[in-house]
Amino acid sequence: MSAFLQEIEGLYAQAMEELAAAQTTASSEAWYAKYLSRKGELTAQLRGLGQLPADEKPAAGKRINEIKNGLSNALQARQATIAQAEMEETLSAEGIDVTLPGRLQQVGKLHPTTVAMNQIIDIFTQMGFEVFDSPEVETDADNFELLNFPPGHPAREMQDSFYTATPDVILRTHTSPGQLHAMRKYAPDPLRVILPGKCYRNEDVTARSEMMFYQVEGLAVGRNITFSDLKGVLFNYANQMYGEGRQIRFRKSYFPFTEPSVEVDVDCILCGGEGCRVCKYSGWLEILGAGMVHPVVLRNGGYDPAVYSGFAFGMGIERQAMLKYSIDDIRYFYDNDARFLARVG
Ligand SMILES: [Zn+2]
Which residues are placed with Cβ below 5 angstroms of ligand 1, an ion? Predict the structure, then answer.
């Protein structure tokens, strides 16, 4: 064996011995720097190949490469062993406290609008009202004209509409056109329905109005339906929705499709009628609009107003939730802020 080969075999043996003694990741890295890195001893030997006599070069070059591979493989194996040992040492030193509380998963819940809508539906279905589905896209006739808003009627201006590409077809501005659909289905039989759903108005978004919002419409038609029936139904609703002992009051109002028309207030759920910031010191909170179905609308729905009468009411679902949970801005409902969604409902 040439002197050169003897030297690198000696280096190999020495490197293997030192590697076996390395106990930490840091010492294995130092070992790499010493032997295998570009400034390492084995690399220096490779450079020395050039000075060898030509007949020794092939065997020496081959052997150096074998040694290099051998050392690289040995380093990998040694580092894996060291990593395993270090992990075990860390685990046994720190221990695992199985009594620590885990990380709780965020659990989804129903949207506040859905919660309020479900409560409203429950209350009215207990009183014998049936949920009636009605389309969100309506003709101008059903949304306005047949509900006694003729073209040019000033009340139309309060409900700016979203128009579709089809003439006279709009996104409904209120759930009231559902009254006509329900009457056409049931006339001349008596009916009691509620119509929950989305409505759309082309208005500026503010703390009190959204472009898209939910309403629930209620309608009862029969031979002997009176204003007292409306009062009883809404009194029962207010007490179930806002708590026993609630008072309601009716204020005269105007809607084209009811006559007479009223706005309905409930005594303030925060101050109990004493007066506070939420009720603007009036002691009352407006919850919905209502009235006796206008004879023109009864006729348009297929009932003879000389024989039949009915009442209707309509309320904003978000408004009910805002009052019930003291929410002061309707925009929270559709901002999808998880903090709001988690707090309400
Ligand atoms: Zn109040």
Answer: 268, 270-271, 276, 279
